[in-house]
Amino acid sequence: MIFIGPGDYLFACVDEKVSIVLGSCVALIGWLPQHRLTLATHIMLPGYTRQAEYDLRYGGDVLRRWSIDAQRCGFNMQTFRLGLFGGSSRFFNSEQSVLSVGMKNISFMHSELNELGLTLHVEKTGGGVHRKLLFNGQTGGYQIHYLDREAENILGDESWL
Q1: Distance (Å, rounded) from C-alpha 83 to C-alpha 87?
Q2: How far, in Å, are 40, 74, 87, 147 from residue 21 at the CA level?
Q3: What is the CATH number of the domain that holds 100?
Q4: DSSP 82-124
Q5: CB 47 within 8 A of CB 59
Q6: How many domains does the structure of the chain reveal?
Q7: Calpha distance 106→70 (Å, rounded)
Q8: CA 31 to CA 14: how far, in whole Å?
Q9: pLDDT level of residue 96 (50, 70, 90 thresholds)
Q10: DSSP of 24-74, one letter per residue?
């Protein structure tokens, strides 16, 4: 199992499952089925860093880094199946949730992906419950475990195929 922590970034062919625990952070997952190539990120904050080097805690920097990595490997970003997960607003009521980091992360990623002409194939974001995402780089399947005693424990296997 590969654990992706806050600010981590993975762009590789993986034979094992990828695990990401998400609260207000979001995970952008990309999968290229014919090559079993996986993009897995753990984005903490919306926007871009003002530094010369990438700070992969920021969604904008993750997208810039992925664009360069995809080009270096000869792949077009538009060919990836994309999923966005996380972005909970656990400590905000529904009226205040727009102020939360989770909602800001979701909105930022929607805006940036749209600007790049990228489409999400799956989205499991928002709400007030934290999640644990398990992604299988071989099959494109994923599981979501909701981390709340009152919520359903597991959504079940789903796939982008």
Answers
A1: 13
A2: 12, 30, 11, 9
A3: 3.30.1330.200
A4: EEEEE---TTS-TTTGGGSHHHHHHHHHHHHHHHTT--EEEEE
A5: yes
A6: 1
A7: 23
A8: 11
A9: low
A10: S-EEEEEEETTTTEEEEE-B-BSS--SSSS--TTBHHHHHHHHHHHHHHTT
Structural domain range at position 105 = 2-159
**Cβ atoms within 10 A of the Cβ of 18, count?**
22
Cα–Cα distances (Å) from 106 to 48, 69, 86, 126, in that order, read 14, 23, 8, 8
Q: What pLDDT, on the 0 to 100 scale, is given for residue 146?
A: 87
Give the span between the Cα atoms of 161 and 151, in whole angstroms.
27
Say yes or no to pLDDT of 90 above 50.
yes
